[in-house]
Design a protein that fits this description.
Layout lengths: L20 E4 L5 E6 L5 E9 L10 H8 L9 H10 L3 E6 L3 E9 L3 H14 L4 H18 L3 H14 L10 H5 L3 H11 L5 E7 L3 H11 L23 E5 L5 E10 L7 H12 L5 H9 L6 E7 L4 E10 L3 H17 L4 H17 L4 H12 L6 H12 L2 H11 L6 E6 L2
Parallel strand pairs: 2-6, 7-11
Antiparallel strand pairs: 1-2, 3-5, 3-6, 4-5, 8-10, 8-11, 9-10
Helix pairs in contact: 1-7, 3-8, 9-15, 10-11, 11-15
């Protein structure tokens, strides 16, 4: 080996993903198995779509997911935690606008002891009144602290401007927590946490015994007769107004601009991800080079393209010194204008290509990350060919195509513009 010569450089042309193998059960439960890895460890995700959205009771789905391990008719919250810890496992819950999940990480040898506890959570949670009062008190305190942060207020204001009183845009208040009733949580729990609304993803060392245990505990006698309606929403592009929340004593101002856009189901989405990366999607992006490195207005600025179940949106966000807020907004507008008027130079585009392909490769560390890639496509009704399209798009997209997309999707005048702090 001649260490004076750089190693050969090659482009990524194809990435082999561990494909999810489906297993169906008579009760409507869907199981997908991503088998990989040498360690006797698995991650089992129980994923439920958010259902029956009611703007008068906006916190039902969130509260149920947050409190699902706070007690069943068999176990108290402390007993659940002690039993899970005893077996070296851990449970986590996760909630987003579209779905809620309960995830267990466990060694294979302890699954037979762990899964009955998980089943108790998913079928027999009782949301004790004492735990509910603690939840309300803690959440109101967190909300009070969060609303002092300009970036939190800007995100809430921005989402409300785009999505209104849907689950995507609703701005939670302390009163909403006060109005949570245990009876409503039990009702929602029975409607949403049922096999017909559940997708299980088993990733890791997925043995036949692990699959059999899931079948025995969740695929046979887990039934319900509760009806539900999966949340669906429709949105049109908003007016592109400026929304200013003044904080006279602010030393920094939070900026968030953007608009509704396409989600991952749209054929333009992979190409827009390239465009977004050029603009603000990585540390070497144009927004970082201009507003952080050149102007020194901020420690960080970025843009993102977000794919939701019923919508997509694009945004640029930063916290800047209050005295340079207007100048920073002008520089953002300038960078958008440049993308619309001038093709991206070939050298810059090559750098972005390499970054995006490297990021994709780096995100596939183990069976769990392969499962995450599966979730990205499955819940939007897409197949694995999405990733082939993505890779081909990154490798072959032209500067002219990026300029065309910038003119189609990035119109600063139509962006919602939120500033929290001082102009």
């Amino acid at each position: 080996m001649n260490r004076l010569e750089a190693p050969a450089f090659g482009q990524v042309e194809h990435i082999e993903l561990i494909k999810a193998e489906p297993v169906s059960f008579a009760n409507g439960l869907k199981l997908f198995v991503i088998n990989g890895g040498e360690q006797e460890l698995v991650r089992i995700e129980f994923i439920f779509k958010n259902v029956n959205w009611n703007v008068a009771k906006p916190l039902q789905a969130y509260a149920v997911n947050s409190m699902i391990s706070d007690g069943t008719s068999q176990y108290t919250a402390s007993q659940i935690a002690e039993r899970i810890d005893y077996y070296g496992a851990f449970i986590q819950t996760e909630y987003n606008y579209d779905m809620a999940s309960v995830t267990i990480h466990s060694l294979n040898k302890h699954l037979a002891s762990i899964l009955p506890i998980v089943k108790s959570l998913l079928t027999d949670s009782i949301f004790p009144e004492e735990e509910l009062e603690t939840f309300k008190r803690n959440q109101k305190q967190k909300l009070s602290v969060s609303l002092e942060k300009n970036d939190v207020v800007s995100r809430r204001t921005f989402n409300r401007a785009l999505f209104g009183d849907t689950i995507y845009g609703y701005t939670v208040t302390a009163t909403d927590y006060d109005q949570i009733a245990r009876a409503d949580l039990i009702k929602y729990f029975r409607e949403a946490y049922q096999p017909a609304n559940c997708t299980v993803i088993l990733a890791g060392r997925a043995t036949e015994e692990a699959i059999s245990l899931i079948s025995n505990h969740f695929g046979e006698d887990w039934t319900t007769d509760q009806g539900f309606t999966v949340n669906t929403f429709e949105f049109s592009r908003t007016a592109g107004l400026e929304r200013y929340v003044e904080k006279p004593q602010a030393l920094q101002s939070a900026i968030r601009v953007g608009q509704t856009c396409v989600n991952r189901q749209h054929p333009d989405f992979p190409a827009l991800q390239v465009l977004n990366t050029v603009l603000g999607g990585y540390f070497g992006s144009r927004l970082m080079a201009n507003i952080r490195e050149d102007k020194g207005y901020t420690y960080g600025i970025g843009s993102a393209l977000v794919s939701l179940q019923n919508a997509g949106y694009f945004f640029i966000a930063s916290d800047v010194g209050a005295e340079v807020c207007s100048a920073a907004v002008s520089e953002i507008e300038k960078e958008i204008k440049l993308l619309r008027e001038q093709p991206v130079p070939a050298e810059e585009l090559d750098l972005v290509r390499n970054y995006m392909m490297g990021s994709l490769l780096g995100s596939l560390e183990n069976a769990f990350s392969h499962a995450d890639k599966f979730k990205n496509i499955y819940f939007l009704g897409l197949g694995y060919d999405y990733y082939d399209t993505y890779i081909n798009t990154v490798r072959t997209i032209t500067s002219e195509r990026l300029q065309e997309l910038a003119n189609k999707y990035l119109d600063f005048d139509s962006f919602e513009k939120v500033i929290v702090g001082k102009k």
